[in-house]
Amino acid sequence: MADLGRFGLTSALVLAVYAVAAAWLGARPRRPELVASAVRAVSMIAALEVLAAVVLAGALLGRDYSFAYVTSHVSNAQAMVYDLTSFWGGMEGSLLLWALILSGYSLAVVRSIGRDRPRLLPGVVGVCATVSAFFLFMLVAVASPFATVPFPPADGRGMNPLLLNPWMAIHPPTLYLGFVGLTVPFAIVVASLADGAIEEAGVLLARRWMLWAWYCLTMGLMFGAKWSYVVLGWGGYWAWDPVENAALMPWLVATAFLHSVMIQERRAMLGQWTALLVVLAFGLSIFGTFLTRSGVLSSIHSFTQSPLGAYFLGFLALVMVGAFALVAWRWEALRSLNQLDAVLSRESAFLLNNVVFLTTAFAVFLGTVFPVISEALTGRRVNVGPPFFDHVVSPLALLLLLLMGVAPLIAWRRATMADLRSAFLAPGASGVLLGLALLAAGIRAPGAVLAFALCGFVAATIALEFIRGIRIRRTHQGAGAVAALWALVMSNRRRYGGYVVHLGILLVFAGITGSSVFSTQRVATLRPGDSVQVARYRITYDGISEATRNGALVVTARLHAFEGRRDLGPLDASRNLFLAGSDSTTDVALRSTPANDLYVILAAWTREGEATLRVLVNPLVMWIWAGGLVLTAGAVIAMLPERRPAPALAGALAGALTSEGP
Amino acid sequence: MTFRRRPVIFIAGAAVFVLALAYLVYGGIQQGATYWVTVGELRGRTGVAAQARVRLGGTVVPGSIAWDASHERLRFAVTDGTDAIPVRYSGVVPDIFSAGRQVVVEGALLPDGSFTATTLLAKCPTKYAPADPQR
Predict the structure, then answer these.
(1) Could you write out the DSSP letters of every residue in B5-71?
(2) Helices (H) and strands (E) in chain B, counts
(3) Span A259-280, pLDDT tens digits
(4) Which of A445, A461, B83, B132 to pair with A599, CA 20 to 30 A apart?
(5) Chain A residues touching residue B99 (CB < 8 angstroms)
(6) Shortest alpha-carbon distance between residue A395 and chain B (Å)
(7) Does ipTM top 0.90?
(8) Cα separation of A72 and A153, whole Å?
(9) Contact A303/B128, CB-based, under 8 Å?
């Protein structure tokens, strides 16, 4: 069976190289039959990769220990569902997943481009096939998932127990959907540049794909944070680990793109900038995979020092030099027709937003690769930890928050002071009032008060936008408030979807502020019957119990939580000590409410029944996850296809009800 | 048109922005920077340099792991193969921490020759990518 998988990948590689050549030769002079052949090759690559994936999945599920990959990621004791998720639990499998997702995207984009913009077809096929060829080469020559062992063992080693968790099962595929999704806008932009026809349509087509990739990246980050919070048992959800940063950087650049593309659409400006952002986002997605898989920076994630790194860097350098050269070559064609009219305008607010997003991405990049840079420059490896990121990113994030409130309300082209006063008086006042209320309530951390006040300001601007829209609709159509809201959102999905996404981001922001500034923790060693008070909670320790479950000794501290006199019920904080090997995992005792999370870790225990507990009270963490849900709703609204041409105000309601098409 | 005035404003804005960023980055590095050292390098240091905040990398000496009496502080030793330094750490112990594993501890050397760590990072075991004897 391994031979079948290997055959699939090798032939897919050959076909990918062929597709690159055919797309290249078919581009100019135009030879449609060659391009059609390249498209067929892309379909064949997808089929062959599916074959390879089926072989690997079959081996994992069938626990065929003659595969080295199966031996190291599956064990007889492991639950069946995790046999399947171990597909992306290791390097080889996750590279195959990457290639597979890329093929799925290639098929989809080839279909839609072939229909809408056939001129771009050779370029898009060429770029997708080039990236495919690279990953297939890695799978065939460097990290084959189909390596076999001469004497299959009776049992495998299984996955790291930390990865046996539902959040970890869905985190990598979601993140990969985002990472790989960045290839599609890149392919479209490169194809447009190569074709010379740098028309708006190309960039706007790229926008749709970018929005999808952005959404997947967001969710991937969220799932990763959730996993870190509930599984790793250290009390936080974000550690500025290089691998987390690897996913954050393309997210920041993609976010910048989603904003700058609006300016390009409305005002035909920032064309050069937008093209650069697409290239950069793709480059960072490859760089992120390189960071995760090469182990160049010591991190809790970097599992391996492998030869992969050099190949990744080589490919990345090649692609980036090529793409930037292409942008430089078409620089004049990308030049904007319009110029900024005034400093006080929506255009310049968006421009500033873009600059801040890119600056944040740059700061994160700098902090992430600082050990490597400092070693190259001074010969000493210097690390900058979370203090660096907190110090640099927090002010930039506050600035972004401010812009999030300002930019959507300020007038296009040129805003006057009178406009500003009418638009921002009420929201500004709400923000200030919220800030004063917090100060009056005894909250003294200046950063947190500022962050919450800004959140209030932005929320008020968004609410005002909705209220204004609903009011106009009601006076024109006399509909009820709910119907008017529905019609309003559906007639301008991107705009109002964007506002809903902003609301989600606000929730995330408030959650991060609350939990990072106001978290309290205490470590206490207790005898059975003792209790410890942390913030408003009191934890009583009833004793320790041991049980064997799923090949692990589970040591549980039986706890009881009280808030004042109120009984909150029992809590269990456990450690799982795996009998095979020296692994252990933590099961945190977690009680979540919208106000705060009570989070208890069993740190240590003695034979005499003493337990050392680390008790944390993290405020507002639930808001982060709620923000993810709100953001999803907004992204779905924004991604729903819009009717073209945009329906006029009067026909909007009818249009909204009938356009639930593909 | 404000053609003459605009570049000045934008250049001034850009300059302010770049300076502010440089200031932020400088402050961040001042706060967060720590040198990476090996056990041997740290042992060889004297005077003020010996007490700077560093990241110490090495392997946990088997049999050296112990909790202190109150169970709030972990003691273990980190070695580079020839020399070892005793470490005291209070904080969350990663699940993958165990004897023989590679760890990175962040903290400073005390005058008594032991190391107080505020951060403990353990490297994942090589389970993900098994050391391939054939390669």
Answers:
(1) HHHHHHHHHHHHHHHHHHHHHHHHHHHHEEEEEEHHHHHT--GGGGGSEEEEEEEEPTT--EE-TTS
(2) 2, 7
(3) 999 888 888 778 888 899 999 9
(4) A445
(5) 582
(6) 9
(7) no
(8) 11
(9) yes
